[in-house]
């Protein structure tokens, strides 16, 4: 008997302060994006900020990842 299986490669990004994944990659196209953590989960917002000023940075800039949404524990603050 020959069985057909579909293998789905799934990666997720989460943190200690979250109750679930904040970003997910599903499938070979998304997983091939080197350096990416995937697409944000529904109702999750994220930005990269300059730690000295708190200002949002543009694409390709290094900074700290700030995440906001229903999966992040209440009472957890940055700074």
Strand order in the largest sheet: 1-2-3
Spans where pLDDT lies below 50 across 5 or more residues: none
| C-alpha-based Rg, rounded | 16 Å
Q: What is the average of the pLDDT values?
A: 80
Fraction in helix: under 10%
Which properties best describe this structure?
single chain; two-stranded antiparallel ribbon; 79 residues; 1 helix; 5% helix; 5 strands
Structure description:
The chain has 79 residues and is mainly β. 5% of the residues lie in helices and 25% in strands. It contains one helix and five strands. A three-stranded antiparallel β-sheet has the order 1-2-3. The protein has a two-stranded antiparallel sheet with strand order 4-5. The radius of gyration is 16 Å and the shape is elongated. The termini are far apart. 4% of the residues are buried.
What's the arrangement of secondary structure elements?
Blueprint: E1 10-13, E2 23-26, H1 28-31, E3 39-40, E4 45-49, E5 64-68
Antiparallel strand pairs: 1-2, 2-3, 4-5
């Amino acid at each position: 008997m020959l069985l057909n299986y579909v293998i789905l490669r799934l990666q997720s990004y989460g943190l200690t302060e979250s109750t679930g994944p904040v970003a997910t990659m599903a499938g070979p196209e998304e997983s091939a994006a080197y350096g990416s953590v995937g697409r944000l989960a529904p109702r999750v917002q994220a930005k990269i900020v300059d730690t000295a000023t708190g200002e949002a940075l543009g694409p390709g800039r290094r900074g700290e990842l700030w995440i906001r949404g229903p999966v992040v524990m209440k009472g957890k603050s940055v700074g």
